[in-house]
Amino acid sequence: MSMPTHVRIFEVGPRDGLQNEQGTLPAATKVEFIDRLSMTGITNIESGSFVSPKWVPQMANSAEVMDGIERRPGISYSVLIPNIRGFEQALAVGAEEIAIFAAASETFSQRNVNCSVDESIDRFIPVAEEAKREGVRMRGYISCALGCPFEGSVEPAVVATIAASLASLGCYEISLGDTIGVGTPLKSQAMVNAVAAVVPIQKLAVHFHDTYGQALANVFACLELGVSVVDSSASGLGGCPYAPGATGNVATEDVIFMLDGMGIQTGVDLVGVAAAGQYICDALEILPASKVARALGGSTH
Questions:
Q1: Per-residue pLDDT reduced to its tens digit, 16-73
Q2: Does some domain include residue 1?
């Protein structure tokens, strides 16, 4: 299959990018971050989550954030939810899209949500029913799709089985996540090919962390298969509270720069994303992990 001519960027910085940061950023800072991203041409922004603040304190003010952002036409502001209670909270703030999740590792599932993989999927059956009734779009995440911090390598067939289950619940798209960043290009292709045998590749997204510096190479490898949706985080923010050693997501700036150089359209303003990323990094008092953002330097301010 030939490379896609257009790639949709799914920006995960405000949720997946920030969830592992220490302390709690003020809601106003997150709102400003999201509003800046909204002006770059990005059409999907993961804006918060309704998980227990006891476990992910950085997301405790997600309701306030969702109430504060300026929702622009044509942009989907999604939230991650763990169960029916989380769905009710998302509905209360007017979320039009939710994300549900499962792991491709039994140990990771137990550490993350205190139940088996099958049980975690079963928890989303009432969520799926309510989402359909309320007209809320539902996206699915699979974590540890290429490796688990506790169990090691993960078989592609396991990922495919979970993807089929999430699709059967009504997820319009399945994001395949290399949570600990151990994937390499050929392994990434093997995993995507296995999933594409049961879920159309048009419904698949890839979500790479850059722990071992392989994220861009993995994105490229999956584009060769026809994947046309890439999860990424402004400035390369990210990490997982339940994945020791996991570092940030592939940086949105780096993905856009690569795609621009390949003549693949995204509709996203690179300089605008870098400026939004610099804003949140200044708030966190850290440097951007994005190599492109660093290369652009002061021109983004």
A1: 999 988 778 999 999 999 999 999 999 999 999 999 888 889 999 999 999 999 999 9
A2: no
Whether residue 215 is contained in a domain is answered as yes
Residue 144 falls in the annotated catalytic set: no
Asked if pLDDT for residue 213 goes beyond 60, the answer is yes
Phi, psi torsion values for 198, nearest 5 degrees: -120, -20
Range of the domain at 178: 8-300
Query: Which CATH number covers residue 244?
Result: 3.20.20.70
209 contacts 236 by C-beta, under 8 angstroms? no
Does 2 map to a domain? no
**Mean pLDDT, the chain, as a whole number?**
94
Reduced 3-state DSSP string for the chain: CCCCCECEEEECHHHHHCCCCCCCCCHHHHHHHHHHHHCCCCCEEEEEECCCCCCCHHHCCHHHHHHHCCCCCCCEEEEECCCHHHHHHHHHCCCCEEEEEEECCHHHHHHHHCCCHHHHHHCCHHHHHHHHHHCCEEEEEEECCCCECCCECCCHHHHHHHHHHHHHHCCCEEEEEECCCCCCHHHHHHHHHHHHCCCCHHHEEEEEECCCCCHHHHHHHHHCCCCCEEEEEHHHCCCCCCCCCCCCECEHHHHHHHHHHHCCECCCCHHHHHHHHHHHHHHHCCCCCCHHHHHHHHHHC
Check 144, 148, 222, 240 and give the catalytic one.
240
Using pLDDT thresholds of 50, 70 and 90, give the confidence band for residue 143.
Answer: very high
Give a yes or no: residue 156 inside a domain. yes
